[in-house]
Amino acid sequence: MRLQPLPLVLAALCSTACASTTAKIPFYIISNGETPSLGRPGLTPIGKQRAESCIPKVFSGLNIGLIITCTVDRDGEEGLNCAAANETAVPLATALGINISTCATGDGADDDCPNNTLQKIQQE
Description:
It comes from Mycena sanguinolenta. This is Phosphoglycerate mutase family. This protein is of the alpha/beta class. The protein contains 3 helices and 4 strands. The protein has helices at about 45-60, 80-95, 115-124; strands spanning about 10, 25-30, 65-70, 100-105. The radius of gyration is 14 Å and the shape is flat.
């Protein structure tokens, strides 16, 4: 029995690893919601409201089976918007009843992480 391809949501993360092998599978890139000024982490109240009410309504009917977001790298220099990305992705994941997968950012990050995560899901 062949599994149907699952659409892929990349919340604020898509690298060149999302190229050839995932080309036949639709994926959606959702940027994080509105963030505070001065580089403060997280979402503004408006960004949080949009993440909680708008994104789940728009994406709930699209048969999404995977959400990938980023993590801050070990030295804390890359991925500083990951807090906002995660806050944006959580309401959709909750509405869909799925877990969020993560891929690291920064110099030590595995550029193939999104692609490898998708392939692992397809094999299940």
